[in-house]
Write a structure and sequence with these properties.
elongated; mainly alpha
């Protein structure tokens, strides 16, 4: 194989990887659980889509988020984990108490 063939094959391989990878981004769907949007209180429901999605994720995945530490310095507010940034620790699944800290 000469140098030109080597470069041609390398560029074709790189282009294939780039094209194949870009299709997956556009067609990707959520691969994680989200709570229904109608469960959010009015003020959170008016927040930007990314904020609403974060709250919906926190509701649906609260047990997992309890193991993720929070690094924003909110420990003084009584937060024990990343879940606390969205849902108060003393709330129950039947009666969710939202923390507004993550609204911005």
């Amino acid at each position: 194989m000469n140098r030109r063939d080597f470069l041609t094959r390398g560029l074709l391989a790189a282009a294939t990887v780039v094209i194949a990878g870009s299709r997956g981004i556009e067609a990707a769907e959520h691969r994680y659980k989200l709570a229904p949007e109608n469960i959010l209180p009015a003020d959170i429901a008016k927040a930007p889509a990314e904020v609403r999605e974060a709250y919906r994720f926190a509701i649906a995945n609260r047990d997992t988020l309890r193991y993720v530490p929070c690094y924003c310095g909110c420990g003084a507010d009584g937060h024990t984990s990343n879940a606390s940034c969205y849902i108060q620790d003393n709330s129950t699944p039947a009666k969710l108490l939202f923390d507004r800290m993550s609204l911005g």
